[in-house]
UniProtKB/TrEMBL annotation:
Cross-referenced NCBIfam families: PTS_HPr_family
Keyword Cytoplasm listed: yes
Primary location class: cytoplasm
InterPro entries reported for this sequence: HPr, HPr-like, HPr-like_sf, PTS_HPr_Ser_P_site
Name of the molecule in the record: HPr family phosphocarrier protein
Residues in coiled coil: none
């Protein structure tokens, strides 16, 4: 599954939302979650990985989920990003 979000928060994806994303990913064993921005794809299971995307206000970030619980993971991470996205 893939879904793209435009980051609306003036702060972009900083430590707090990145931590929430990583914590959410850990709930879904057997599901891989990736974030992609400007052709750079990272595994969302590491805080450092999420932060290295450098997602700022107005950037588009795609959430890619694969595996048994892909839909549930996509929904939860999408909800987290929606708090910081338009």
């Amino acid at each position: 599954m893939e879904q793209t979000y435009t980051i609306g928060s003036e702060l972009g994806i900083h430590v707090r939302p990145a931590k929430l994303i990583v914590e959410a990913v850990k709930k879904y064993a057997g599901t891989e979650v990736f974030l992609e921005k400007d052709g750079k794809r990272v595994a969302a299971k590491s805080l450092v990985n999420v932060l290295t995307l450098g997602a700022k206000h107005g950037d588009s970030v795609t959430v890619i989920t694969e595996g048994d619980q892909a839909e549930a993971a996509q929904q939860e991470i999408g909800t987290i990003l929606a708090e910081h996205a338009k």
